[in-house]
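Lab channel / #folding
Pinned by the channel admin:
"Please post every new chain as: sequence first, then the structure tokens as a reply. Keep commentary short and put observations after the output so the thread stays searchable."

First post following the new format, from NK:
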Amino acid sequence: MKKNHITLLLLATAVTLLTATSCKKEYFDEEKYNDFVDDMFQVDGIDKNHDWCLTKDDTITIKTPESRIYSVEVLTADLRTASNPEIIAEGVCYGDQAELAYTVPVVATNIYIAALDQDGKYLGITSVPFGTKEIELAIDDLQPIGSKYTIPTYQTFTYLYVCTFPLPSEAFDYNDMALRISKKNTRLENSLTVDLHVTLKAAGTKEPYAGAIQLADIKYSDIDKVEIVEGKPMDDGYPLMRQYITSDAPLICGRNGEAVINLFESAHWAFGKQRDEVGNIIRLIYNTTPSVQENYSSKADPINRTYRIYFKDRNKARMLTLNRVDPFLIHEYNGGKWEIHTYAHKFDEVLNSVFTNKAAYDNHMSWALIIPKADFKYPIEGMSLSTFDNELEETFGPYEGFVGWMKDHTTHHNWYLNLKRPDLVYQE
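Reply from TO:
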């Protein structure tokens, strides 16, 4: 997204002229930087109160005085009629109660609660409005499910990134890193263990970067350990000295005690595991171009890993939602290691500190998006989600309504469902 067609190379060159790097810290000429960004990148038209959030959180206490009800599932839709219901929270009640946290799309008006017996058989289902704080389940009051229903899957979000921060991007295609993440409890009896299933879908840049996940509001000391169920990390066999994430352990401690899950030191090594004749990692663009282009782009299988998190406190485990899962990438710019987080954590510096002033952060744009849709299709290389003219009017792009949402964060909350040009998104 840009005001005119100056290339990203010229953008990088111009901003570099505004900066100087010393051995101690990175220095920005804040006034010149702000003038440059304002001139080159449409900031004024973006809603100044934008939170870039397409989801909302809440908690509900589910009381189950009947011992026949062993556990409960909170669902996005009625599994008797919906084609893709998702489990957004679950817990054991067993004649008592469960307090559960959950996340749903902003457009959601109701949630659904299903009761199960100890054998995992559904006993019935009911719905309540979003925001309901407490409900008591009685089997006689539930609607029977019967034998024909859709088996629910676990809620999955798509996380998308542009790897240029603090620079504007020539095209905000949000495919430089594309992840899908789902969460499930693996031991319902004590709710101490949570599985995060992470899929690395794309690396739409040749620039090197690392990836990790911050568990927001959860400390390193809250977790006993993290195991990779498949045994090996995404970048198994990484051959060079680590620059971005120095430890290869799956659980690492942030600068201020944050709990951080280590995904990979190099997305390009994770996908390609190729080196050139002098030993450097060959960096191609993966899974963002319609066709393979020699020495430029390639297609690769998505990389799947499950990270099993052993919590010390069941309340911490129970309150973890996908909105509190903050994947971030780390890349180098002007001598510093910059982290690109989801907008709610834009100012966080979990593993690296380059924050010498507000210039690079104090704008209303987000270089990362959380899309509450498991199969959201990101744009092909070089294509913004929507393009716009100098008046911030939507002109072209795969999704209708994205620019309207940029202009007013209270509208167009379902833009990610309005795919109008399938030829402009990456088809798997």
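NK: The radius of gyration is 23 Å.
TO: also worth noting, The mean pLDDT is 87.
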